[in-house]
Amino acid sequence: MTRGTRLHAAPAAEERVRDADRSQSTILAAARDEFAELGLGGARMDRIAERAGLNKRLIYYYFQDKETLFQAVLEQSYRDIREAERHLNLLELRPADALRRLVEFTWSYYLDHPEFLTLLNSANLHKARHLEQSRRARELNSPLIEMLAQILERGRREGSFRGGVDPLQLYISIAGMSYFYLSNNHTLSAIFGRDLLTAKARQERLTHMCDVVLGYVLRG
Amino acid sequence: MTRGTRLHAAPAAEERVRDADRSQSTILAAARDEFAELGLGGARMDRIAERAGLNKRLIYYYFQDKETLFQAVLEQSYRDIREAERHLNLLELRPADALRRLVEFTWSYYLDHPEFLTLLNSANLHKARHLEQSRRARELNSPLIEMLAQILERGRREGSFRGGVDPLQLYISIAGMSYFYLSNNHTLSAIFGRDLLTAKARQERLTHMCDVVLGYVLRG
Amino acid sequence: MTRGTRLHAAPAAEERVRDADRSQSTILAAARDEFAELGLGGARMDRIAERAGLNKRLIYYYFQDKETLFQAVLEQSYRDIREAERHLNLLELRPADALRRLVEFTWSYYLDHPEFLTLLNSANLHKARHLEQSRRARELNSPLIEMLAQILERGRREGSFRGGVDPLQLYISIAGMSYFYLSNNHTLSAIFGRDLLTAKARQERLTHMCDVVLGYVLRG
Amino acid sequence: MTRGTRLHAAPAAEERVRDADRSQSTILAAARDEFAELGLGGARMDRIAERAGLNKRLIYYYFQDKETLFQAVLEQSYRDIREAERHLNLLELRPADALRRLVEFTWSYYLDHPEFLTLLNSANLHKARHLEQSRRARELNSPLIEMLAQILERGRREGSFRGGVDPLQLYISIAGMSYFYLSNNHTLSAIFGRDLLTAKARQERLTHMCDVVLGYVLRG
DNA sequence: GATGAATGAGGCTTCATTCAT
DNA sequence: TATGAATGAAGCCTCATTCAT
């Protein structure tokens, strides 16, 4: 008996299971938005339930409490960005192009996922205690570090890149340049009285960052 | 007249004023610590009073409410860093040295004032609404931008620096490289399983950042 | 036909019934423990299901709600003690020995069934409303009262017992002396700083109670 | 300046202090009633506030949480009964009269303070953990034990009492006989179909208990 | 200036119970 | 018979804030 043949019938077992999964995802997405907008302390369980369109009690059914929910949101966010990173085929590009692509990817991902930045902030405000409790923390290690190491090594062997560059340091610098600009965007705008998110400003920022990275890495 | 000589007497007017000032500073310092550790949402007025060793009611007496108090803390923090920046006499140094000095200063200030980073995060989580409400926001404009502009211009005229460098972009990059490393220190440590705050690691980070900035700015 | 020989077959009707009975007993035992440990207000339906290793919904299937379940537990407990009492063949003993045996039985039963004491407490906290609702309340009348009446009468006729002893009053006194000692054991221990449940202490208590009862009943 | 001279004046400092005290007593009394009627698990903080006519928050201001409040109620109840016991001048009476007076006092106190019985039950349901946490538990030791010891010794020396009676055992028996009758009154009434609290029934119970105690203690 | 007492709103969480197979 | 998913009501407790000297 296929699904189409049952009319007015109750969902089959497999479907009910999927309902549970769907509820969990819905909650997770709602929580992600709430936490991103208001931080762990400012988030409200009531509002998360409302955003999810589900009963508040269900949140506790699937995720024990607020802290656990936050941890689940964090893990999901990490899984998401790592998934995106895996699709970056940097090793097919020439070293300099690969670096440009990496800078651009980081920049675009942060731009498209502003919630990732605030979640990261919240996590660090709480001293990453949520990550430490996560057994999966290590799995969250970015594949980019290894890719970056290979790119740098290849560039050095080609003679175009300088040697002695620590890939982790460079990765952090690349991330930091995008991150600070976007994360502190409001403060910077207020202080400098300049909109930093116009199309032009964004293009200029990206160009600047590429220039910095390549200026550093490229052999004079 | 020392205080000990007056028995059962009410404090003199001037002394009362000094007490008032001292109370305010005490509250501000306590609030800064609390906000830095727990964010705006996680901070507790009770705890701030306790940290200050003063009655909670007094906080409301001096600072209308929690938001206003947070704003006051933010402004004070900005005043503090701007004050420190004013003592940086970069223009006395040669351009390359001035840049190194600027990177080092930023790095050291963030290291020594971790609360500044978390306050900044909190402010940005709330979209800098506290800054916008502050009449003094513009006064918070860093003098460093102007200094940096002059340094870059001088280096360019000397022929050692490349041209076309936007001082604001560079300033943000410098700040971002330190900021991300320190602010996300916990997350990074958890993920990469590497203590990023040992003396050696700190030295390496500083060297890396100087290399990046100078690598970018110096004419090949 | 053993169960193992039927593969993928639905259980036979008789077996289903046995399962049903077993489930009900399991629930009842789990509920008894939970109620005994935590009282009616402190007991949790979730925990009862967990203790029983059965789905919570099943509890509602067999016992309408928490109150009804409590009532069922109470009735079962009464049935249990009445059953034990029925095996006491006091009338075969001489009057004084029969009294000693009764005191000892009461004491031992309470010692061995501490849950009975707390259930009784809970029932009385709720003014025995669960008993009043029970159609079987009267059936719970202890056969001991009648036995005790006969013992007292026989002792009196023999000339060894005093007359005018109300069997119900004596029954309550016997029960009360054991009950208070055991039920308030924790409080008494805390206050008097003396472990009341060592083997020696228990023996002393039993001796004391027999002395009291016989001292009262025996003709000088 | 006496109180009467101030009209329309705000309460003086000493009075405000008393307000705090009064609030605490009011809460304590309301809590005692609620706990007595419904047990620890069944009591509701909301209802306690309502009974006290005070803001619920104030309960938490003075008594950290429900458990602490319960502990405070327990301690107060013990203080009350110990206070009453102190006014019993048993040593002025002849030994047999002193015993009768003690039985009567216990019976009357329990009759007049039914909440004491249920509080005791609740405390024991929770294994007296609230008492153990109380630093004052030992102070709650009844002065009656010592008095009873003296009465028994005096009776023995006079030749009217038997020897070898443990005052603690006797105290527990006296308390238990009253306690069980009253505490399980509802259950007993339901089972035996007999109202145990009529004036006549109460008189009979008291007579019975005196008979038991004296029958035991008096030398044949 | 300083403080202990008091409060209303709301937050997180738990509970008994029902739904829908 | 048995069960995982879902829910509304309510419970304990906390929070920022105000009252009343």
UniProtKB/TrEMBL annotation, chains A, B, C, D:
The molecular function terms of the Gene Ontology recorded here are: DNA binding
**Name of the molecule in the record:** TetR/AcrR family transcriptional regulator
Q: Is S-adenosyl-L-methionine one of the keywords UniProt gives this record? A: no
Residues within the DNA-binding region(s): 44-63
Q: What organism is recorded for this protein?
A: Ramlibacter henchirensis
Residues covered by the HTH tetR-type domain:
21-81
PANTHER family linked to this entry:
HTH-TYPE TRANSCRIPTIONAL REPRESSOR SCO4008 (PTHR30328:SF54), TRANSCRIPTIONAL REPRESSOR (PTHR30328)
Keywords annotated in UniProt: DNA-binding
The residues that cross the membrane are: none
